[in-house]
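Write out this protein's structure.
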Amino acid sequence: MGRVRFLGILAAIAATLVVACTSDDVPRPAVTEDAPTVQTLIATPESTAVSQSPVAQPIPTTTAVPTVSDSTVTSVPVPTTAPTLLPSEPPLPAPPPTIAFVQPVATSTRIAQIEVPGSPEPFVSSPSCVERPDFTFTHFYTDMEQLKMINPTIVTSGNWLKNRQYHTMYTDANNIAEPTPVYAPSDAVATEITHYFARMQPWVGDPYIASQFDVRFQASCDVRFWFDHVSTLAEPFASLAAKEGSTDTRGAAVYVSVEIKAGDLIGWTTGTDPAHTWDFIVTDQRVTVAFANQERYEGMGELTDLLHASCPYDYYNEEMRAEFIAKFAWWEGSTGSTACGGATDVLGALAGAWFQTPLAADAFFMPPDWGVVAKIAADGVVYMAGPDWDVRTRPGDPTFVDPELMITENCYQHFWNPTSWVYVKLLSDMELAVAHGEGQCPSAMPTDSTVYYR
């Protein structure tokens, strides 16, 4: 399809979209659907170690939640490209036939389906989107009884940051999670569905490949939300999604336009394996999160999702928000916190994200080269991670210093065995020297340190 004709079709369809602004008086949807009990799984040929989706990581405790107001309006677009969850790999073996089950009838209305070849364009609000300055979420987006804990925005994933909430599910003695429903928290329009393959590594047994879905919605001209690691889709989403999964999410999205109502069933999930986590993400164009080097986040691809990261629970009423807040934790047994959203960087201190190279003019066309992340968890533990290491230091440990207060140099000793350390020295507001090793902390910065940048 020619680009002009394609844009004309997009404009015609966009003109038909209407996002309802009504609220449902019953905020919690009744769970009457029979959840699916089967999934399409593909065993890998070899029982080799594989990468896993990250488990819940530290929760920010000292950063303020951005205030949604007219004064924070920004024109930076939020990209609709689904995050790349897997590197490009050799073709996977063909999946076995899918075992069918009866889908419950959803109340969503299918309007149209648009398939766009190639990579998705950066998100631009539809001309027919609805301005909702007092936008709120009115429904729980899952069964809260099946939810063990939430690690809220902005989370760490190894040595990089993500705009999402990690949701960890309850499991049985064999680490099996029952499918939990995923609901629309508000009226919205579904815009994208990405079907991809994720490699799973259970605690016991061989690794396998499972289908996963990323489903995205436009709730207003400013607010978008989406779910990732959905295991099975309800109708009409199941019929609209690509039949075959992709090993690379770049350019794999199917563009759709489906009106949904608050409380509509989107699908079910058991999360990743073995962590049994899944994600909920919100971006708000009225929110601009402050970082130490704002220019890097304003124009560098996927970093713009962090620039407009917003705490989902600030859109709920106090009673519903309290139920989510009660689930906040980094790991099972850790202390919860009410902190959600906001910046992780502290200018002039260690806290936040550092990159492997200085910001250059051509960097905006490259993926972020994450280097080091330093953060403090809800239970007060310092979490630091680099390209191939991580270190945790507890309050009361001799080498403990809050990263937000570390403005000179310090060596952090890992409290686990076998132990390791990371020595950090702030060279300037924008440069950090880092060295990592095994054993006990050295008395001074080693000569083989690496410099990272804001």
